[in-house]
Amino acid sequence: MSKPHAIRTELDGLLDGxxxxxxxxxxxxxxxxxxxxxxxxxxALHELxxxxxxxRRGRGTVVSTPKLVQPLSLKSYTEGALRMGRKPGRLLVTWxxxxxSADLAEALGIAEGDAAMHLERVLLADGQKIGxxxxxxxxxxxxxFRETFDPTTSLYAAxxxxxxxxxxxxxxxxxxxxxxxxxxxxxSTTAMPMLxxxxxxxxxxxxPIEVVRALYRGDRVAFEASLTDRD
Length: 231
What we know:
231 residues; alpha+beta; Arc Repressor Mutant, subunit A; Chorismate lyase; 2 domains; 9 helices; 10 strands; DNA-binding
């Protein structure tokens, strides 16, 4: 067994005996305990950080809160967080009307140059920053949100309250690195892998509702889907 693999196995064993919030031994102590170079330990600790099993708090390292698991479905982030017993929250970053580009206009079913509402928010779970969501909606359809919508609450609930029902969506997820602005908003680094989600949602009659680009911290969020064999 290689040294990096052996150290990782030892660290996994240590984690099995700890619970959320427990302090994790520092790099120097682990290197001495296992008789290996600090670089070997540093590599294993970085893997655990990326996987979201440990996290930095102040000058130390502790066992992380389990990842928030979001279902791949037409449910809001709020519903996914509540399902796991987590407290959802949002911080407003940007709320503005923009002239739709050709691609955005086609996706929203409006004319190029027409107004699209752009809503950018940081997503929270138990006060912890886990994602950055950028949503575009046609102003002609949802312009009333300026007077009625609280951006710290669920957008999907607000859409449904207007009598619009989500019918379908096309969603794509890929792994990326955050830009400096995105990393700063999520209190992360540009070296931390992120999950980028693209979604276009339609109502039950096939009319466009939204276009979403969301970035989730890979160490704090995972996605799951329920699959069936229809053959």
